[in-house]
User: What shape does this take?
Amino acid sequence: MAIDDRPRTSTSERRAVPAEISRSWLLVAATAEHGFDRAARSRADQVVLDIEDAVDPKRKPEARATVAARLAGGGSAWVRINDVTTPFWADDVEALRGLPGLRGVVLAKTEAAEQVTDTWHRLGGTHPVVALVESALGIEESTAIARAKGAFRLAFGSGDYRRDTGTSADTLAMAYPRSRLVVASRVGDLPGPIDGPTVGTSHPILREQAQVAVALGLTGKLCLDTDQLPVINEVISPTPADVAWARDFLDDFEARDRMVRDGSDLPRLGRAQKIERLAQAFGVEPR
Assistant: This one.
């Protein structure tokens, strides 16, 4: 296959993908400690240890302590923390602050810019915050959220959004909130947003939903199962044909001393350069 899909037996063999362009964000329940190592060895671009919706409220302190011990003892991951309005948020950020293995946090149910900034400050102003937008209010405030100090990327909590609004899972019905996050990310000068997870085991449905997300401008996807990772990574990567076109264009552009011939050259140059950067990061080769 064109994409580096070789089995990975240790974290040192994983292809390191920068978080700003990461495609697959694997959520792992913090109560499932047996799955931490498997997630770290998986094809996930980023692993997110979940101490929010995946954990019963009575087990939050236990889950928080498990994650903190992991990140203090050599592990490395993102953490999905509870939203600012809950009694758990302050304890979450206090427990995570300063841990060497913390890559950043995914802030659940973000609805205001100050929630992002408060979280960022409480973590010491050094860890990025992915704002998980999961409600009608969050969608409407997404531009302000994207501009907030500490905001790193936006993500779509599609399940909770549907619960909040009564929207169906239909592609057309979900196009509006996804597009709002794409536009907000651009206005806030953030990378493309991360789509919500596809629930179920059907790879054709996963592939279709990932393709829709890419078509709308999203550049990542949350997932709940390691079996979904190869599909997500493939769909969100440039295709081998894209890479072949980009390299041919760049070669031709250099061969003519970077001379612009018409109004289409600069847009095509920008697209070709972006495809080449992603191909290098993801290990996609032309064919």
Observations:
- Confidence is low (pLDDT under 50) at residues 1-13.
- The beta strands are 24-29, 46-50, 77-81, 102-107, 129-133, 151-156, 194-195, 220-223.
- The CA atoms of residues 246 and 272 lie 4 Å apart.
- The radius of gyration is 19 Å.
